[in-house]
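User: tokens in, sequence out, please.
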């Protein structure tokens, strides 16, 4: 269907008043309320969360595959690591409960894991750095 260049009036010409000023008032369309910034931001952030969740899920899967494929890594213990987030710069942050395993993965196997993850995510996501941390105890619990 062709797009109309002229919009139809909302009133029927036979029902229009005789006063031209009144006809103008009846014929004007009420402006639609523009979308508020908060509503637009909510939609945008929802899209970003959906994209970030799928990216994080791909990186978590790549992490699990990388720890199984890198020789020397205890895959069963390393699979308990939680890939917490991925920064905009591409830095992957993973945390482990075991500090010695975190040190081993973060120092000894860091480059091998990073290379394997880059190979697995080829063309989908870029990883600039792999940061492995251990979950520390809270200071309140350590003092007791």
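Assistant: Sequence out:
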């Amino acid at each position: 269907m062709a797009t109309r260049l002229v919009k139809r009036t909302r009133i029927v010409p036979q029902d229009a008043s005789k006063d031209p000023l009144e006809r103008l008032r009846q014929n004007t369309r009420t402006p639609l309320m523009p979308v508020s910034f908060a509503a637009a931001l909510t939609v945008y952030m929802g899209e970003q969360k959906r994209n970030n969740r799928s990216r994080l899920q791909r990186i978590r899967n790549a992490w699990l595959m990388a720890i199984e494929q890198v020789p020397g890594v205890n895959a069963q213990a390393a699979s308990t690591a939680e890939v917490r987030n991925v920064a905009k710069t591409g830095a992957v942050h993973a945390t482990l409960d075991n500090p010695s395993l975190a040190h081993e993965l973060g120092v000894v196997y860091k480059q091998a894991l990073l290379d394997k993850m880059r190979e697995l995510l080829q063309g989908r996501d870029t990883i600039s750095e792999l940061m492995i941390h251990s979950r520390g105890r809270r200071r309140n619990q350590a003092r007791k």
